[in-house]
Amino acid sequence: MNKSKQKILNAFLSLINQKSVLEITNIDIINESGVAKGTFYHNFHSKDDIIKYSEMKIDRELVHSFVQKYRDENLPPVTPEVFVKIFCETAIPLVYEYRDQIRILHGSDVHEVWRHYLEVHYFRIMKKLFPEDNNFNIRLFIKYVNLVVAFWISNLIPMDQEDFQRKFMNLINNDVLDLPEK
Amino acid sequence: MLKTKWNIAQTYLELVKEHSLLNVTNDDIINHSDVSRGTFYNNFNGQKSIQDYIQEKIANDIITPIKDDLDTREINTNDIHQAVLDISDSLIPTLYHHREMIKLLNDCELNHIWEDLLLDVMTEYMAPVLKNNRGSIKNDRIMLNYINLIIESWITEDNPTDPEAFKAILYQLSKQSITQLL
């Protein structure tokens, strides 16, 4: 992994945790991260780039572990149930691992920019897996999953991942207007 | 005066749509809206205050009529599905009428400007039903946000389904699980 990139991302997260992104300049990020000006511009052109990078970094691992798990299960047909199960088993531990980063992004005023990258990205993946499904349903599915995961992780001390995996399956397999207590 | 203020706000949104939220400066807004620096700073402190102004306008133009309509309804505190129908009867035609503005905010990644207000209205209307229904406040929050997401997914499409047809879709979606979307 690129060390400077990580330094810059960490500095950016620490800044957006303190103030509005509209008040943060590239110079602020350079100062906070301690990297040289040239290094910064070699890696990123803008704040948008940094947000995109933070999304891509988690996403790459996520896709990798999803595919790995899918192979381990001997490539079953990708029904919605199989998809949700593998997603739950692979994505939730990763989100938990990156929880600080995700909590800060989610709680900041760039959360929509970040959410947008995420939605566009996952839409492309899911459309490949479920080409027959209508776009509206896929978009809504992604938005909902993102919502419940963000709610979980935005707690300062989120419930542990095994508990949340159970909760997640409940939230996704029951009628939303009639969610069970637990 | 008011006209100038709204012109600046519109210019701001057009710039954000084109260059993204993080790449617009106050100077860009001043140059493109053809007002003097003095006039700009007489009206706004910065971009956050432009966003607040847009939110105020949305509150007046879109949210107040929805609220007034909901106030005329007699809520049945035992029927959560009926309450969702009430909400959709009130919201959907008004939002559809203002869809261009909402789509613009979506393209600017500023959905929270209208969604936060909408969520407040729904939460207030649903409160007696939820109180009556069962306990988990977290699940209630997820449910209300989900209704918001359904509406967001619809109204931000390039050509949203017409309001009457969408009411039926929303009602159907509110009675099924997320896995069934796929």
Structure write-up:
- In chain A, helix 4 (47-72) packs across helix 5 (80-97) and helix 4 (47-72) packs parallel to helix 7.
- Chain A folds into two domains: 1-45, Arc Repressor Mutant, subunit A (Orthogonal Bundle); 48-178.
- Chain A is 73% helix and 0% strand.
- Chain A is mainly alpha-helical and 182 residues long.
- With 182 residues, chain B is an all-alpha fold.
- Chain B has two domains: 1-44, Arc Repressor Mutant, subunit A (Orthogonal Bundle); 55-181.
- Chain B has helices spanning 2-19, 26-33, 37-43, 47-71, 80-97, 99-107, 112-133, 137-155, 163-173.
- Chain B is elongated and about 55 Å long.
- The longest helix of chain B has 25 residues, at 47-71.
What would a concise description of this structure say?
Chain A is mainly α and 182 residues long.
Sheet bearing the most strands of chain A, described? none
Order of helices and strands of chain B: HHHHHHHHH
Give the helix/strand class of chain B: mainly alpha
Number of beta-strand segments of chain A:
0
Subunit arrangement of the protein: heterodimer
Chain-wise SSE layout:
The complex is a heterodimer of chains A (182) and B (182).
Chain A: H1 3-16, H2 26-33, H3 37-43, H4 47-72, H5 80-97, H6 99-107, H7 111-129, H8 135-153, H9 161-173
Chain B: H1 2-19, H2 26-33, H3 37-43, H4 47-71, H5 80-97, H6 99-107, H7 112-133, H8 137-155, H9 163-173
Properties at a glance:
heterodimer, A: 182 residues, mainly alpha, Arc Repressor Mutant, subunit A, 2 domains, 9 helices, 73% helix, B: 182 residues, elongated
